[in-house]
Protein backbone atom coordinates (compact mmCIF):
# COMPACT_ATOMS: atom_id res chain seq x y z
CA UNK A 1 0.00 0.00 0.00
CA UNK A 2 1.57 3.28 -1.07
CA UNK A 3 0.98 6.31 1.12
CA UNK A 4 1.99 9.92 0.86
CA UNK A 5 3.98 11.46 3.70
CA UNK A 6 1.34 14.14 4.28
CA UNK A 7 -1.35 11.45 4.62
CA UNK A 8 0.75 9.98 7.45
CA UNK A 9 0.91 13.31 9.28
CA UNK A 10 4.15 14.64 7.77
CA UNK A 11 4.37 18.40 8.15
CA UNK A 12 6.91 21.24 8.22
CA UNK A 13 8.10 20.28 11.73
CA UNK A 14 8.98 16.73 10.64
CA UNK A 15 10.55 17.99 7.41
CA UNK A 16 12.86 20.28 9.41
CA UNK A 17 13.80 17.49 11.83
CA UNK A 18 14.42 15.09 8.96
CA UNK A 19 16.82 17.53 7.29
CA UNK A 20 18.79 17.75 10.55
CA UNK A 21 18.83 14.07 11.56
CA UNK A 22 18.46 12.03 8.37
CA UNK A 23 21.14 9.61 7.23
CA UNK A 24 21.51 8.25 3.67
CA UNK A 25 20.26 4.74 4.49
CA UNK A 26 17.11 5.86 6.38
CA UNK A 27 13.60 6.62 5.13
CA UNK A 28 10.73 8.36 6.93
CA UNK A 29 8.20 5.92 8.37
CA UNK A 30 5.24 5.89 10.75
CA UNK A 31 4.39 3.34 13.44
CA UNK A 32 0.84 2.28 12.61
CA UNK A 33 0.34 -0.65 15.02
CA UNK A 34 1.99 -2.28 18.02
CA UNK A 35 1.94 -6.07 18.11
CA UNK A 36 3.41 -7.48 21.35
CA UNK A 37 6.89 -6.07 20.96
CA UNK A 38 6.77 -5.76 17.18
CA UNK A 39 5.72 -2.64 15.34
CA UNK A 40 3.96 -2.43 12.00
CA UNK A 41 5.68 0.46 10.22
CA UNK A 42 4.53 2.26 7.06
CA UNK A 43 6.79 4.11 4.64
CA UNK A 44 5.65 5.78 1.43
CA UNK A 45 6.56 2.62 -0.48
CA UNK A 46 5.96 -0.35 1.82
CA UNK A 47 4.80 -1.71 5.13
CA UNK A 48 6.91 -3.95 7.33
CA UNK A 49 7.44 -5.25 10.87
CA UNK A 50 10.16 -3.76 13.06
CA UNK A 51 11.38 -4.34 16.59
CA UNK A 52 13.42 -2.49 19.18
CA UNK A 53 16.81 -4.14 19.67
CA UNK A 54 20.15 -3.60 21.38
CA UNK A 55 20.71 -0.98 24.04
CA UNK A 56 17.24 0.54 23.70
CA UNK A 57 15.60 -2.83 24.36
CA UNK A 58 17.91 -3.71 27.28
CA UNK A 59 17.35 -0.35 28.96
CA UNK A 60 13.62 -0.39 28.23
CA UNK A 61 13.36 3.31 27.47
CA UNK A 62 12.34 5.21 24.38
CA UNK A 63 10.08 2.56 22.87
CA UNK A 64 8.00 3.84 19.95
CA UNK A 65 4.26 4.34 20.11
CA UNK A 66 1.61 4.25 17.43
CA UNK A 67 1.82 7.52 15.53
CA UNK A 68 5.57 7.97 15.98
Low-confidence stretches: none
- Total number of helical segments? 2
Average pLDDT, rounded to a whole number, is 85
Shape: globular
Classify the secondary structure makeup into a structural class: alpha+beta
Residue fraction in strands: 15-25%
Terminal-residue CA separation: 19 Å
Give the radius of gyration. 13 Å
Strand order of the largest sheet: 1-2-3
**DSSP summary, beta strand count:** 3
Q: What is the H/E string?
A: HEEEH
- Estimated helix fraction: 10-25%
Q: Could you characterize the architecture of this molecule?
A:
- By secondary structure, the chain is of the alpha+beta class.
- It has helices spanning 12-21, 54-59, and strands spanning 30-35, 38-42, 47-51.
- The protein has a three-stranded antiparallel beta sheet, with no helix packed on it.
- The model has no long low-confidence stretch (mean pLDDT 85).
Keywords:
single chain; 68 residues; alpha+beta; three-stranded antiparallel sheet; 24% strand; globular
Q: What is the element layout, followed by pairings?
A:
Elements: H1 12-21, E1 30-35, E2 38-42, E3 47-51, H2 54-59
Antiparallel strand pairs: 1-2, 2-3
Summed up, what is this model?
The protein is of the alpha+beta class and about 70 residues long. It has 2 helices and 3 strands.
Amino acid sequence: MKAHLHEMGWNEFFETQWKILAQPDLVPARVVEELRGLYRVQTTEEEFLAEVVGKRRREGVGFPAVGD
